[in-house]
Write a structure and sequence with these properties.
This protein has 15 helices and 18 strands. It is globular and about 65 Å long. Strands 3, 4, 5, 6, 7, 8, 9, 12 and 18 form a nine-stranded mixed beta sheet that branches. Strands 11-13-14-15-16-10-17 form a seven-stranded mixed beta sheet, with helices on both faces. It has a two-stranded antiparallel ribbon with strand order 1-2. Helix 8 crosses helix 12. The chain folds into two domains: about 210 residues, 3-Layer(aba) Sandwich (Aminopeptidase), CATH 3.40.630; about 180 residues, 3-Layer(aba) Sandwich (Aminopeptidase), CATH 3.40.630. By secondary structure, it is α+β, with helices and mostly antiparallel strands. Helix content is about 35%, strand content about 25%.
Length: about 425
């Protein structure tokens, strides 16, 4: 990304655009994947699994999350960028269990959620409601951070009118991008931080999990052996037939609800047909792995691979809590994500923003993410800013899983080492 003083853009290998042409650029909105100019979208740098045409096409029929893709075009006819906007059904359930909230926030939450009932609201999201990470927008090289924010705010104004939604979230921005964008958001926004996303860096030259384990400290290797031993007699199968996933869908959702149902804030959610649709579109870049005990389905995990960025995205998991306790099933799933990433020559596995300490025992590092929030209601923003100040995410100390020389390597790559 260019520095904050850059104001000109050379788009599509063509002439340099003048500031006036950038100022007159306008958004074009696409509510159907068939209408999107995919060649222009794919030409924008910085893609991810969640901004991949195949993923967006698969999820276009989703009932809980409605998507619009926006592309902005200069007056001269060049495509300058694209953005993912979503209308998501959200629920706030038990934030006190996941954040260090003050007594005042507990009282306010009790008023909004009488009897502990979820507080439901629609949210306009720039980015990905069903995943964490920088999946918000794509820009041609040379677009300044100030211009990016200005166009993003335009996108919110236009989509809020389209969907009539008053709660807005622009998410998620890592440390580098946040530092560039943060000074340019207008005063109507509040900056919030939640739990970090956990990432396991990988050496693309590794060919087996033995090489990964050799880079870990003795205690971490012992942990891996224990995980594999406790789950050794489970039947583990990767499902490659979309028709089989169509039949399994309700069972997978039942397991998924046992995990996702405990989250403090729920945005959207999976549906029965999502798994088969994703497999049909993504093919071998999508994985669904099931776990059975004596023939009975007790868990699953699914994930996506994005070859251009060398990234494996851990998508969603589901399991029975009691089986998980005895079998270390969740940790086995994390191991399988790492094994899949190594088999693909990936450079990182993104594991999401839950179970932070458990993930750190397998070498995951926390990557802080920032979100900008706005509510179009009288007096809502002062209350929101107060809530953000009084409800920081739980502090946690990552376990040190890597040998010293690998810690140095990952620190040089930009990861924060404790």
């Amino acid at each position: 990304m260019s520095g904050p003083t850059s104001t000109l853009l050379k788009a599509d290998g063509a002439r340099t655009l003048a500031p006036k042409e950038l100022k007159l650029a306008r958004w074009h909105w696409f509510d159907s994947p068939n209408a999107v100019p995919w060649e222009a979208w794919n030409a924008l740098p910085g893609g991810s699994a969640y901004l991949d045409r195949r993923y967006l096409t698969a999820m276009s029929g989703h009932g809980k999350v409605q998507c619009r893709l926006g592309m902005i075009k200069a007056e001269g006819g060049s495509w300058l960028g694209g953005i993912l906007m979503q209308a998501v059904q959200s629920e706030s359930r038990s934030p006190a269990e996941h954040m260090d909230v003050s007594m005042g926030v507990r009282m306010a939450t009790a008023l909004m959620q009488p009897g502990g009932r979820p507080f439901r609201f629609r949210t306009l999201v720039a980015g990905q409601g069903l995943g964490s990470g920088e999946h918000t927008f794509l820009w041609q090289e040379g677009i300044s951070p100030a211009q990016q924010v200005q166009w993003t705010e335009q996108a919110f104004d236009q989509c809020a009118k389209h969907w009539k939604i008053r709660v807005w979230m622009a998410k998620d921005f890592g440390p580098e991008r946040d530092a560039q964008l943060a000074p340019h958001w207008s005063k109507r926004w509040a900056r919030a931080t939640f739990d970090p996303v956990m990432e396991v860096p990988l050496d693309p030259d590794w060919t087996s999990t033995d090489e990964w384990q050799a880079a870990l400290r003795t205690k971490a290797r012992t942990k891996v052996r224990s995980i594999l031993s406790r789950s050794a007699d489970l039947e583990v199968e990767r499902i490659t037939d979309p028709d089989e996933l169509d039949q399994l869908g309700p069972d997978l959702i039942h397991l998924y609800d046992q995990v996702y149902g405990r989250a403090s804030i729920v945005m959207g959610g999976l549906e029965n047909s999502d798994f088969a649709r994703l497999l049909r579109e993504l093919g071998s870049d999508f994985t669904v792995v099931t776990y059975r005990e004596e023939g009975r389905l007790v868990g699953f995990h699914c994930g996506m691979h994005h070859a251009d960025s060398g990234t494996v995205e851990a998508y969603y998991v589901g399991f029975e809590a009691e089986i998980n306790k005895h079998r270390a099933l969740y940790q086995r799933m994390l191991f399988e994500f790492i094994a899949w990433g190594i088999s693909l020559g990936a450079c990182r596995v993104v594991m999401g923003r839950t179970a932070l300490e458990i993930k750190s025992t397998l070498g995951a590092f926390p990557v802080p993410l920032s979100t900008f929030v706005h509510i179009q209601l009288p007096l809502a923003m002062p209350f929101l800013r107060w809530m953000i100040r009084k409800a920081p995410p739980h502090a946690f100390k990552p376990r040190r899983a890597w040998l010293a020389e690998w810690c140095e390597r990952w620190q040089a790559a930009g990861y924060r080492i404790n």
